Amino acid sequence: MSLVCAISNEVPEHPCVSPVSNQVFERRLIEKYIAENGTDPMNGQPLSEEQLIDIKVSHPIRPKAPSATSIPAILKSLQDEWDAVMLHSFTLRQQLQTTRQELSHALYQHDAACRVIARLTKEVTAAREALATLKPQAGLVAPQATPASQPAAVGAGGEPMEISEQVGMTPEIIQKLQDKATVLTTERKKRGKTVPEELVRSEDLSKYRQVATHAGLHSASVPGILSLDLCPSDTNKVLTGGADKNVVVFDKSEEQIVATLKGHTKKVTSVIYHPSQSVVFSASPDSTIRVWSVTGGNCVQVVRAHEAGVTGLSLHATGDYLLSSSEDQYWAFSDIQTGRVLTKVTDESAGCALTCAQFHPDGLIFGTGTADSQIKIWDLKERTNVANFPGHSGPVTSIAFSENGYYLATGAQDSSLKLWDLRKLKNFKTIALDNNYEVKSLVFDQSGTYLAVGGSDIRVYICKQWSEVLNFSDHSGLVTGVAFGENAQFLASAGMDRSLKFYSL
Predict the structure, then answer these.
(1) Number of helical (H) and strand (E) elements in the chain, helices listed first
(2) pLDDT mean across residues, the chain
(3) 327-331, long-range: CB within 8 Å, 24+ apart, which pairs?
(4) How many CA atoms lie within 13 A of 118 on its CB side?
(5) How far is CA 369 from the centre of its chain?
(6) Taking 90 as the threshold, does the pLDDT of residue 217 lie above it?
(7) Residue 326: enclosing H or E segment and its boundaries?
(8) pLDDT computed for residue 147 by the predictor
(9) Residue of 455, 474, 480, 481 lying closest to 212 (CA atoms)
(10) What is the mean pLDDT of residues 9-31?
(11) In 195-351, which residue ranges form alpha helices assigned H by DSSP?
(12) For residue 338, which phi and psi values (nearest 5 degrees)?
């Protein structure tokens, strides 16, 4: 029920009550009346403004004016309300548009900031790589300095030839190599001809199928994995070198990349995983050999042993020295700790580029393949060529020594695989492959029981019978690397189709 003013007979905006007549008035009207008459308008008794008592009420709802009760008046009222709603909606739309523009501007600024950060990160990475490259070079300058009393050997082109040859094969190094070879030979004799119990049998090996494939390790713009190696002490750690100039360490069990190592200026053609340290090695046609720390993800040493592209790489059984072969016709023996070349030799009578190199398991002899289809066996201590195996036609692409120490497998661009007996120095088996078959990789398993061939496809042979037990053609490109897991529990392969594949039961 609404209060009604006794004077105007309408709902008052500011109601008050007169204590004299107990009537409700609009304060504005009663104040005017009192100012003129000084009495209460209802009973004429004296009344002052101070006597009036305010009434506190919620916002009064005024009854509609009589004029608003007709249909045209109601329609006009509705029209006015609609207009007000439309104006409010228009104002909100304008505010929304302004907010959108502000958000778009903020997003553009954020994108620009991200691009700047990415560019700066790239520049910092490049600077770090350059610094990592310069550090070992700075460390190599001092040892290579030639004393004034000894004139430097100068080649035909006026370039210094093997200045670090002064370091030489010291008696201590030769003794170290001899001691290691003695230990390894003794261990091999103890093992005898027994095959490890954990080794996968040939009937199980023949059932192997592809179980995993990974194509995202290297860049798709320059496709191709050119080299592959597994860590001997943990074959779950896989090392690959790519046409994209990168070296990648991959964890097979976790199925993720552990490190991507950048620094080579040309493709990476050879990689080796150190058996006991978190260190890997890589070689490239950019004529450098790089030593990388996997945990640090950086290059810790650059070995500049050659004047042309490095074609082969092999780690000595001590884990301290690297053998490398090159298109400059030299093989080099280098210390991985200092990055210095201990000795560098060529066969001057041959005058031919070397295509691959591999240490014998004992580490005192090694083999090199040449571009004119020769396999040369060298004595490391004497640095002399002690045997030659002719028979292939075309450049030798891969060589592999068996763990038994007696067999050498070789492949060349003549679609054939040759087995040599190092005791009799002769070829005792030739496996003819399909026409135009390209042999790119040869590897024996750790027990010397199986031989894997990678090239146009993948083949696994059982030694002694030399019968084929496996054949895979899952790669869409040339297979450039094959490797056995521990006890041949799995087989890994990499190829020019940019994929790394694993095969097992």
Answers:
(1) 4, 31
(2) 87
(3) 327/285, 327/353, 327/354, 328/287, 328/353, 329/353, 329/354, 330/305, 330/306, 330/354, 331/357, 331/366, 331/368, 331/378
(4) 6
(5) 32
(6) no
(7) strand 321-326
(8) 36
(9) 474
(10) 93
(11) 202-205
(12) -100, -20
Q: And the tokens for 74?
A: 């109601």
Residue 433: alpha-carbon gap to chain centroid: 36
- How many percent of the chain have pLDDT more than 90? 59
Pairing mode of beta strands 458-462, 467-472: antiparallel
The residue to which tokens 């031919």 are assigned: 352
* Burial bucket for residue 277 (CB in 10 Å: 0-12, 13-18, 19+): middle
Distance CA(178)–CA(401), nearest Å, equals 19
Strand partners, 496: none
Read off the pLDDT of residues 218-273 as tens digits, 9 standing for 90 and up. 988 888 999 999 998 888 999 999 999 999 999 999 989 999 999 999 999 999 99
> What would the DSSP string read from start to end of 84-116?
HHHHHHHHHHHHHHHHHHHHHHHHHHHHHHHHH
Integer angstrom CA distances of residue 382 from 177, 212, 325, 372, 386? 12, 46, 17, 24, 10
**What residues have CB less than 8 Å from 118, skipping those under 6 apart?**
none
Q: Are 408 and 400 in contact (CB under 8 A)?
A: yes
Query: Who's near 447: CB < 8 A, 6+ residues apart?
Result: 195, 196, 199, 403, 487, 488
Question: For residue 4, what are the CA distances in angstroms to 10, 205, 348?
Answer: 5, 106, 127
- Give me 500's structure tokens: 């790394």
Cα 305 from Cα 344, distance rounded (Å): 8
User: What's the pLDDT at 459?
Assistant: 93
Q: Which two tokens stand for residue 123?
A: 């520049």
Encoded tokens for 314 = 């092999």
Q: Do residues 383 and 426 touch, judged by C-beta distance below 8 A?
A: no
Give the CB-side neighbour count of residue 26, counting CA atoms within 13 A: 13
Q: Which residue has the tokens 């691959």?
A: 356
Distance between CA atoms of residues 7 and 258, nearest Å: 93
Q: Single out the residue of 450, 453, 434 nearest to residue 442, CA to CA.
A: 453
In the 8-state DSSP scheme, what is residue 69? G
In b/e form, how buried is each residue of 395-415, taking b as 16+ CB within 10 angstroms?
Answer: bbbbbbbbbbbebbbbbbbbb
Contact 313, 355 (CB under 8 A): no
CA distance 451 to 459: 8
